[in-house]
Amino acid sequence: MIEKQLPGLSRYRFRSDGEVISYQGVEPRPLIGGLDKDGYRKFVLIDDMGGRRYVRRASLICAAFHGPRPKGREVRHLDGVRQNDAPSNVVWSTHKENCGDKLGHGTAQRGVVNGNAKITEEQARMVKGLLRNGLTARETATISGVTRANVYNIKYGKTWFWL
Questions:
Q1: Which of 56, 140, 155, 161 is least enclosed by beta carbons within 10 angstroms?
Q2: Distance (Å, rounded) from C-alpha 159 to C-alpha 36?
Q3: What is the pLDDT of residues 110-156, one digit of tens each?
């Protein structure tokens, strides 16, 4: 098991299994922390100056094992599991690369899985078919029971573009 330190956080060690160990108190102990609104493990750590730092475990592990965060980069979980913060699973990455992983991991919020979806996949397919057959947006909306705004969004690839 490899343990590393980060500058300014000398009370803590960051392990190769993705755990954070606190060296405050009598004996070292693993920190549990909590989950943030997005499902990532987070902690409130006390830095060497006595200030509080609210941080995600993945960022700490990535910094400890892969160096400081490069400008414009974020943590990317290679397997898509938000709580697997092992150094072999987290890397610094662009937002575009990180979002691209969502399709492969099956975690993309698109289609009916998206909380903002107004129509079903079946309706979207119907709209695409009607448009392909030369119907106008107005006719397509009337036949499919979908608003004209949704028809235009589908027609111009703003929504349901992957169908």
A1: 161
A2: 29
A3: 676 666 677 888 888 898 999 999 999 999 999 998 899 989 988 99
